Amino acid sequence: MTIKTAIIPPKQFLVGNTSTLDYEAICVFAATGFFLDQDTYFKEQRVLKPATDYQIHADTQKIISEKPYFKWHYSPKQRTLEQTVDAFADVFESIIKEQVSGKNVILPLSGGLDSRTQAVAIHYLGIKTHAYSYAFDGGHDETWYGNKIAEVCGFPFESFTVPKGYLWNSIEALGKINGCYSEFTHPRQMAFIEKYKTLGDVFSLGHWGDVLFDDMGVPRNLTLENQVEVILKKIIKKGGLDLANSLWETWQLKGDFKSYLKKRVHKLLLEINIPENANTQIRAFKSLYWAPRWTSVNLSVFESVRPITMPYYDNRMCDFICTVPEEYLAGRQIQIAYIKKRMPKLAKLTWEAHRPFNLYNYQYNKIPWNLPYRLSNKLKHLINSKYFIQRNWELQFLGEKNDKKLQAYLFDNPNLKNLVPYQVRTHFYRKFKEDDTIFYSHPLSVLLTLSIFSSRNKL
Description:
47% of the residues lie in helices and 9% in strands. By secondary structure, the protein is an alpha/beta fold.
């Protein structure tokens, strides 16, 4: 059996059996929310590497041979920003045309640049599209932006609301879909998964554009040791280190967790070996180990309903990024210039990250120019005493009904006790309830995921 993995794989290919739990790998998952490199829940089972040609024995599933065909690099072409934007337009539009031409596209829209850039290209190519956005019940709402973008592009538009407690009706199905390789409070799409079927034939998803088309915010010559610290700061979630340390001690693993993770990240950076620019190297790290093992995992939710396409994941886009000077990537310049070039009217709509400014005047999102908006926004929040939902876990964990469901999975599952001791679960549940809900929401979400995993695998 031959398998050729993409440079950024949109799905995991697992090979090997499931005999022995890999406790070190599970600790990394506890800290970061994803498994690192080729890790799985089991020592004998591996995930196939990105950008590699494999020969695998059809019966035993053992790897016969593996040969990498791509390595991330930094080979900037000497061209102007305008020429670079033109080159991006050629690549991006070619990819989208090839992926979805002749199909009815389902396009998620947000207030950011990635989906707006897709909307521009899809509109320019004249492809039939149905767009949608979501809002949290009683909180964060991207439907205003999505509706405005769809209106300018002439796309039919659907608004969805993520309701309180939807997770408990779909958690078993989600565990089956993503294999428990991502914690369960992130894939909001589960809230309206059945509704996607009526919107079109194929998804066009904008994941990873924000990583490829921006710099990493570090000096070009940042040392390797400091790059490790930057990556650890990016990938370790709030409360994640506490949970990982607790599990590490519980399972009596050698050494300490932080040193273990630091050594692994250091080794992976050495293997990437792009000394010319630290921004490029950190981007490569994220594209090799974060995108396939975190971002890609919940793409399976979309794919369970309709086929998915991903222009930013395409191999040609990865090739292109390696040729772009870092100074052009900084500040999202290429996407901004592309939107202005192809659809100026869309560039005049508010950019959520710099509201109330747009792509022509976002540079003024600083004092004193943004002071009136900041003051009025703060006043609005002070007047409105209603709790504002900003994160999906707030809809799934807070409140009496949610709490009963959460406790049932954390404390009434006989399989979970074979993986995580009762006192560890109790400790983090109490920390969440009594100390800091935001800081300890991630550990609680991981423990919930481990509960479903333990049941599915009958530990």
